[in-house]
Each structure stands twice: as structure tokens, then as C-alpha cells.
Amino acid sequence: MSNDQSRKKEKLAVSISAPFLLSLTLFFFGPAHLYFTNNLEMPFLFSDIWYMLVAFALVVALPLALLMALLKDPCHTKAAALIFAVGLLLWIQGNLLVRDYGLLDGHEIVWSDYVWQGVVDALVWVGVIAASFLNAERLYRHIALLCAALIVIQAAGLAVTVFSAEGEPEWKYAEGFDDGGMYRFSTGPNVIIIILDTFQSDLFQEIVDEDEEYAKMFDGFTYYRNSAGGFPTTYPSIDYILTGEFYDNSVPIQEFIRATTMERSLPLLLKENGATTEINPKVMKAIYANDTVYDTIESGGTAETGNKGLSSLYHLTFFRYLPQEMKKIFYNDLLRESEEGQNSDLQTYQKFRSTVHVSGNGTDFKVFHLQGPHRPYTLNEDLTIEDLPQNRSGCLAQARASVKIAHALLESLKEQNIYDNSVIFIIADHGTHKNPVGINTSGIPASTSPGFVSEEVVAGGIPLMLVKPFNSTGALNVSDAPVSLGDIAKTVADELKIENDLPGSSIFSIPENESRVRMHYYYDWSPEYFDWHKEYLPPLEEYRITGFSWDSASWQPTYRTYTPDGAGYTPPPDYEIGSVMRWGSGGNAERYLTRGWNHPENGFTWTDGHAAALACSLNETDSDLVLTMSFSTFLVKGQIENQDLRVWANGYAVGNYTLSTEGFQKKSMEIPQSLLDGKTLNIVFELPDAASPSNAGLSTDSRDLGIAMQTLRIDRA
Fold first, then answer.
1. What burial letters (b/e) apply to 505-544, b meaning 16+ CB within 10 Å?
2. How far is CA 235 from each of CA 256, 405, 560, rounded to the nearest angstrom?
3. Of 190, 319, 372, 421, which is least surrounded by CB within 10 A?
4. Cis peptide, bond prior to residue 557, ω within 30 of zero
5. Are 397 and 308 in contact (CB under 8 A)?
6. What percent of the residues of the chain are helix, what percent strand, and what percent coil, each to the nearest 5?
7. Are 248 and 568 in contact (CB under 8 A)?
8. CA 623 → CA 28, 61, 384, 608, 652, distances in Å?
């Protein structure tokens, strides 16, 4: 073969391989990998979108390949080097330079906290492109082989990902709902549940305290301030509302939702008693989407759902595969897409006002799940889209909007003369979880004892609950009865006089002075779990609520943790009296740590937040113990001169210190044997003054630092 023919073949191979590397990486392998690593989160099937991914990849690759084939040297050589470099960089960025920016839930990313990541990205991109361009001639002969190798690597990686991915859940095969049916009500009994996502109970108290007109919107309602939720986020909460059953990580959550729905749930019970059951789910996977239980569910997934989700999938891909400066652009696009939740609430508002009508005389059961005051905050009290502050003031504005949207349905029910014949719940599925907006406790009874459970835990467990029974009228009443979301199913069945064995109690039968224990299962959407793609939830921490739910002093950890993978409750790891727990890189303390700790450093580990905890199982509990800890404190001269430290053992205070000394120090405290009623010892370090170096002007470090733990030892007294 002549050199000319060889050069033509090489040019053809490079002209095809380089554009296909770039295009397949960004438009096929990237989104496909994200899909299968998060397929339980994607509300569509891969079979709905694969051909679109292929089409986009071809639409980009083929014209680029044709253009390259038409270029003459030296432009062709330089262009090939440039396109190869970009394809290589996309692969590097998407697979090697992956950053943890936290849960992409609409919160503002503080880009100043990621300055060095941006610098690294920029240096890598500029360096690789410059090196490829300057060495284009030497690189050219290897481009086709390198491109083929990277394509094969990605194809093999995708094959492994597909093979190891969870199976497609059943809920994906149920798509859509009968929108018209949702707004048709009966002359017979109507049971209506409006879920305003993330509406924290104290927000409503503040709203009606500031403007009594909001209270006037709820004729015949009772505001149950002292309500408790079962979980801090939506996924298990909807099933808890509809069944009263707690999920405990002993089986995969989708299996649990299916079993509880089909064996003992409110919609199933109503359906068996002749009711029409209709639901407008905000998150399909949070329910068992089966048309034998819900009249609105339509079986059979369609490509329409995939079309709707493809834009978000590509924006997530671009966010992952492009350098940090470009990530900002696509994160803003993701924020705009998340605003559709507010736009959908406005659409529901219009339907509440204009589409409600009456037809039939049977029992109708309706569940409307709205965005509510869920982040991002973009819907103001005038029901217009606005870039609100992402703090409590923005949350309050959006909460006022949610109240007005719910009120629109109440007005329409009155106009149709079916308000009195309706029992109505206006609730939240949980309070705020990540990025809590604070708890305004000024309107509740003063606490009689200190609490050490963090605000984040409490905030997630205090959902809004407004309830109107049948034929109830009059000004908004306020009750401090200790109710929970798990009581709703029982309440509805009892009000309809349907025989049932549902868990919980009828809300209307619970007196305000009842001494009632309610349970809450806290978990954190850590990076491993935040995209809902796991079969199980993260470890569930159990809490007992024995007083007013807003008061952290009412919350007591049981120190029982329900771990995933079917393990259910497992005791903490064993600790031998007299041995030393060591923090930091290579230490042995990590197995005992439960929450509130940062990553290990050289010889120590910082607490992160206002409380950190550890748990262990003791081999001896027949004597008093002495806990000795070695640590240093985060202090800043002239700004943070001291920090308070309170140490709790199994819920009782055993140490209270004001720390004002720099460097490592030791503190010892006695743990009475009377606190060791079992073999489990739970230690909580409460640090109310923890602060971040960024707020102190020292660095961009946004962690709230309290103490840097070095060692801990427990001995017999």
C-alpha cells in the first residue's frame, strides 16, 4: 500500500474515531452511566430513551466527522488533536475528576467553597488541550487507537454498570394519571388529602400570627400543631401516611411499599368498600402505582415520560462531565427545571379554581401531592415566580403561596356545595431536612429541660397538619394533641365507619393531655444514597417523641439503628473496657461513629455540626465507668474565644465544659452504672458554639467545627 493510500486510511480512521469519542462520551455513555447508577431515581425506562441517546450522539458525530474529512492538512491534524483532547477531557472529568457538591435538590452551591477544584479543572483542561495542540503531529498517528481504546473502556464500564444495576422497579411500568378525574368530586362523602411537601408546622403558626387573614381561610379546620412525622423525607413518608406502617430497612423499600399497599392500606380498604381512589403523585416511586388500588393510575410506561426526563438527564450529564466553570451554567439549568414544581403547583391552583365539579354520589378519595415550600424557593405569596432568598424568609413566602393554593380548592368545594360533606387533610409529608430553616418555638409551651437532639433532626419530623371533619364549621381551632401522620389512615377509616385494623389512633379521639410516645426514624441522604437508587434507605436512627414535637427536649434517641441490606436493627460494635479508640487516618474509632463527624485527618477527626455521636456495646456493665477523651478545640482569637461542650451518656448529662485552651487537652467524666441498663452506650458531644473557618474569615472551609477528637478511653471507676 502506498504512503498516500495509508495516509488516506489514517485520515478516515481519525476523522471518524475522534468525533465519535467526543460525541459518545457526552451524549451516550455519560447519560447511560448516570441512568443505570441512578435508575431507581429515573422516572422512565431506559428502553424509552436509548434510541434518543444514540440519535443525539450520531447527530453530533456525523457532521463533525464529515467536516474533519474535508479539512486539509495542517488544519485537519490540528482539528483532530483538538477534538481528541476534548473527548479525552470529557472522559477524565466525568470519571476521574468527580466532585461531591452535595445533594442537587435546589440548594445554592457556594462555589467559593470549591475554588481549588475549579483551579484543578481549569489547569487540566488548558494543559491537555495545549499539549495536544502543540504536539498534534506526534499525537496524530495514535489518535485512532486511543479513541478506540477509550470507547471500548467506556462500553465495558457501561456493561458492568448495567449488569450490576438494580432491576427496573414495578412503579416505572405505571405511567400518568387521569387529570380530569382528580377534580371530579362526589355528592357522597369526599376524603381529600393535600400534601404540601416540606411544610414545617411552625411555619404555619408564624404565618397566621403575622396575618389573621390566613387563619380565616380554614373554616372548620383544626390546626394540630403538635404533629410528628415518621421520616425526614418524602420516600417512605407517603406510604406511612397511607398505611400507618413504619419502614425499618428489613426488606427493600419498594417491596415494603408494595406489600403494605396491597395488604393493609387506606386506599385498598376504601377500594374494597366501593370508593373511588385517585392520587396525583409527586414522586411515583413513593407509592405502589397499581391500577387495582388507584383509579387514576394507567398501566404501561410510554416514551412520553422518557422525553420529559431526557432534558434533566442531559443537564446532569453536562454538570458532571464539564469543568467547574461550565458546571455553574448547567446547575442553573437544573434549578430552572426544578422550578417546574412551583409551576405545576400554579397549574394545580388554576384547576382548583376552575375545574372542580360534582359527579356521582359514592365515596371519593383524593390525594394531591404538591411541591409546597420545598426548595428551591421561587414562588412568592402573590403566586408569581421570583428568585426568593434560600432561607427561612424565602421558605415562608413560598409557604404562604402553598396556603393560598390549598385554599382555592376549599373555595371551590364550597361553591359546589360539597364542603360540609368532605373530610379534608392539609398536611406535609415531613418538615425541612437538609438546609433547615430554623424552628420558631415562641408560640409553644416553654421547655422544662434542655435538649441535645439537633435542630436538623427535629425540623424534619414536625410536618403541618390541618384537619376538617365532616360538617365542621367555625373559626380555625388549635389543638396540641400529640398526633402523627401515621394516624391519618386510621382516622379516615373510622370517620367512614369502615371496620379496620389500621395502625395508629383516630386523630379526633386523642386528647391534648395524653401522654403519648411517637416514633421518628431519622436518616441522612449521604452521597451514597441521596439519589434514591439503593434498594434500602440509609441507616435509620430511632427517636422517641414524648412531649411537644417542636421542642428538642421532647426527642430522645433510643440508640437503635436500623441498617440497610435487610439487617434491620443491629447493635453497635463491641468495645472492650480499657481499650483506646483512636481518631484520624488509620484509627479504629470510625466503626463506632454514628453521626456528626468529618473525614479523618492526620491523628484526629473534627466534629462537623452542633452534635456528634458514637455508640458501642460494652462487655461489662456492672460498675461505674470513667470516660477520658483527648481533643483540641476550634478557637479563633478575638472571634471565638471559647466553646461550650456538653457530653451526654445514654441521654443523661455527664460533662459540661467551657473550652478556652488551644492545643490538645484531656477531660474525664464519670458514667454512673445506673445509666447502663443495657449493654449499649451512646455518647453525644453537644457543641452549640461550633463555627466554620469561612465565617471566621480564615478560609473557604464551611464545616462547623467544634472539637478535633484524638482518643477516647473508657475504664472502670
1. bbbbebeeeeebebebbbbbbeeebbbbbbbbbbbbbbbe
2. 12, 23, 21
3. 421
4. no
5. no
6. 40, 20, 40
7. yes
8. 63, 74, 64, 32, 17
Helices (H), 174-302: 179-182, 201-210, 212-216, 234-243, 253-263, 266-272
Whose CA is closest to 652, among 677, 633, 634?
A: 677
For residue 670, give the amino acid letter.
E
Residue with cell 403575622: 210
CB distance 545 to 224 below 8 Å: no
Q: HSE of 159 in the Cβ direction (CA atoms, 13 Å)?
A: 6
* Distance in angstroms (rounded) separating the CA atoms of residues 608 and 601: 13
Q: Reduce the DSSP state of residue 681 to 3 states and report it.
A: strand
Residue in 607, 619, 622, 603 with CA at minimum distance from that of residue 671: 622
Low-confidence stretches of the chain (pLDDT < 70) are 1-4, 40-41, 43, 101-110, 169-180, 298-309, 330-342, 447-452, 526-533, 568
What backbone torsions phi and psi does residue 545 show, to the nearest 5 degrees? -110, 115
Q: Residue written as cell 393531655?
A: 513
> What's at 349, amino acid-wise?
Y
Bridge partners, 630 (sequence order): 666, 711
CA angle (662, 663, 666) in 5-degree steps: 105
Number of residues that this document lists for the chain: 717
Look at residue 2 in the predicted model and tell me its pLDDT: 57
Phi (first) and psi of residue 145, to 5 degrees: -65, -45
Residue 613 near residue 684, CB atoms below 8 Å: yes
Q: What local confidence, expressed as pLDDT, does residue 303 receive?
A: 39
* Encoded amino acid at 698, one letter: L
Question: What residue spans of 563-643 are helical by DSSP H?
Answer: none
Give the three-class secondary structure for 65: helix
| Omega before 376 within 30 of 0, i.e. cis | yes
Write down the residue that cell numbers 472522559 correspond to.
Answer: 91
Query: In whole angstroms, what is the distance from residue 554 CA to residue 518 CA?
Result: 10
Helix axes 340-354, 392-415, angle to 10 degrees: 20
Q: Specify the pLDDT at position 299.
A: 55
Q: Residue 100's pLDDT is what? A: 72
SS3 370: strand
DSSP H or E run through 138: helix 136-164
* CA count, 13 A, side-chain hemisphere, 25: 29
Q: Which of 374, 331, 135 is nearest to 232 (CA)?
A: 374
Q: Which amino acid is at 4?
A: D
Q: Following DSSP, what letter does each residue of 487-531 receive, concatenated?
A: GHHHHHHHHTT-----SS--GGG--TT----EEEEE----TTTTT
Among residues 629, 639, 650, the alpha carbon closest in space to that of 692 is found at 639
For residue 641, give the 3-state DSSP assignment: coil
User: Using CA atoms, how far apart are residues 468 and 475, in angstroms rounded to an integer?
Assistant: 11
Burial class (CB in 10 A: 0-12, 13-18, 19+), 155: middle
d(CA 358, CA 674): 64
pTM: 0.72
Query: Do residues 519 and 538 make contact, with C-beta atoms less than 8 angstroms apart?
Result: no
CB neighbour list of residue 2: distance below 8 Å, 6 or more residues apart = none
Residue that has been written with the C-alpha cell 481518631 in this structure:
583
Per the CB < 8 A criterion, the answer to whether 677 and 651 are in contact is no
Q: Which amino acid is at 76?
A: H
Q: What local confidence, expressed as pLDDT, does residue 504 receive? A: 95
Helix axes 392-415, 201-210, angle to 10 degrees: 80
Q: Which residue has the cell 441498617?
A: 563
Contact 521, 562 (CB under 8 A): yes
CA angle 442, 446, 452 (to 5 degrees): 95
DSSP 8-class letter at 225: -
Containing 658, the helix (H) or strand (E) segment is strand 652-659
Name which of 257, 295, 333 is nearest 537 in CA terms: 257
Contacts of 118 (CB under 8 A, 6+ apart): 111, 323, 324, 325
Task: Decide: 571 and 594 in contact? Cβ < 8 Å.
Answer: no
